[in-house]
Amino acid sequence: PFGINELMARVNSLIRRYTTLNPVTGNEAATMLLKDMVIDKINRTVTVQNLSVDLTGKEFDLLLFLASNKGRVFTKKQLYMQVWTEEYDFDDNNLMAFISKLRKKIEPNPEQPFYIQTVRGVGYRFNKEA
User: Fold this and answer.
1) For residue 67, what are the CA distances in angstroms to 7, 30, 31, 34, 128?
2) What CA–CA distance (Å, rounded) separates 97 from 13?
3) Which positions fall inside the OmpR/PhoB-type domain (predicted)?
4) Per the CB 3.0–4.6 Å rule, which of 7, 39, 56, 108 could disulfide with 32?
């Protein structure tokens, strides 16, 4: 048991150590190369089949989070809390609309998505084959 100031000092110390030991260097760390997609984490840009894709900030955050966790299934609540960083409001329509818009922008065939897959009754995952 310790006070909030001590907790903040410890957290800041851990963050400093992590960023010192794991700096973002080179294109490998800053760029995610997938099947036909390139995600540039620094410039927050996405290209699919060598064409630039215009994404909103939240669309980019959602895509980056899913792509960074290929193959892992996330519930709608987990995705909402991770990307929107606020308490889940039990309205799935907002997240489903973002997924739909994102698929239309990145998928060759949004009706049969390759990248962002629906896991019925659970949520979504990014294709581990991408």
Assistant:
1) 32, 13, 12, 9, 9
2) 39
3) 29-128
4) 39
**Cβ neighbour number for residue 107 with a 10 Å cutoff:** 15
List, for residues 63-119, the tens digit of each pLDDT value.
999 999 999 999 998 898 888 877 777 677 888 999 999 999 999 999 999 999 999
Confidence of residue 20 (pLDDT cuts 50, 70, 90): low
**DSSP code for 44:** T
Q: Evaluate if residue 27 carries a pLDDT over 50.
A: no
Domain 27-126 fold is: Arc Repressor Mutant, subunit A (1.10.10)
